[in-house]
Amino acid sequence: MSDYGDYYKMVKRYVLSGILGTNAQKRNRHHRDTMIKNVVSHLYSKIKDEDFYLVELREPFQSELFQLAFKQSLGKNVESVYVEELGVTLTKEEMFQILVTDPMMGAIEVDWRDFFPYLRWVPNKSMELKIQHMEMRKRALVKNLIEEQRLHITRGEEISCYLDCLVSDGNTLTDEQLIALVWESIIETSDTTLITTEWAMYELAKNPSCQDRLYQDLRKVCGSKHITEEDLQHLPYLSAVFHETLRFHSPVPIIPPRHVHEATQLGGYDVPAGTDIIINLYACNMDKNDWEEPGDWKPDRFLSGEDEHAEMNKTMSFGAGKRKCAGSAQAMLISCMTVGRLVQEFHWKLKEGEEENTDTVQLTNHKLYPLQAYIRSRCA
Ligand code: HEM
Prior knowledge:
CATH 1.10.630.10, two-stranded antiparallel ribbon, globular
């Protein structure tokens, strides 16, 4: 449940100064630039001549984002780690499974007792054991990662990262709180931005006229040089692609519940004090009264000429109010920079049959089948 107490306020300060605020984002700029460079190099390695080649974006992008998550949170990339408590050495893929995929799947685990509340007293041992096992592995891994880096930090080594900020003098977080905060920053970096970027590339590969328009804008603003974060403010169509993708494929379709402290009215309904409400963002974003042809992906609807803030608030994709997403700037920087660079470098075409592959999985609208597209170098 979203609260707004002292602990929350303290953590929000750490989050902003250690990882997501403007200064922290500036510190991490070189990590983001490296990430995009590596994704592009990976895709070039799949191309042999001026022809189209079939590629999957998810694998290299996911791996690079996960690396970025480690660098921002712990100050270094981790390729593998021996976890004493588990007695195993984990590869990067296994760490991703434990820190990102398993918790996401756990969040949508169905407890059959929810459908029969009068049978709540019946134990659901298999589910409880599964969740406990997942939680134990996640905790052991994060604890291990923290302890390794903490040694370097206490030796006085210069490691500028979120953990460094969390354990700096005067902070009073318990080990459990540290584990929770470091894990949250890793999963938040690794999941929703990947989903948004993959769906944006799917839509651009499916809609050649939108892709061409974006390419022309990029040529106009950047000429023959690579897009930079400074260019983003001059690329409204790129930003419109990002917002329309969030509206259409919302990676957080349901936001954490809100507790109603005072009786109020919402959308014409009386809501008594004490109610817990859940907002379905996907339904809000697809609302037929607000949008023209809401069932079509049309970036133009975000080109009203208003400022970026106003465009962003047209959807509730990042939530609203005090608990609004703290990582929206990072998500936008990474997603827009990646989409921009991928369109600058390559011509994208969907693989035959891929158009129909719009099924989703997990809590965050993950594309069930990774995007498969043909790419050709624009230099060819
Ligand atoms: C496109 C990507 C993303 C979307 C759509 C998204 C969406 C959301 C939403 C809907 C909320 C809940 C807001 C509310 O309750 O009103 C939220 C909260 C949050 N998000 Fe994001 N998010 C994204 C990326 C990120 C990233 C990359 C990070 C950090 C690395 C991040 C960090 C957070 C944090 C810390 C909160 C809690 C804020 C608070 O409670 O004060 N998000 N996000």
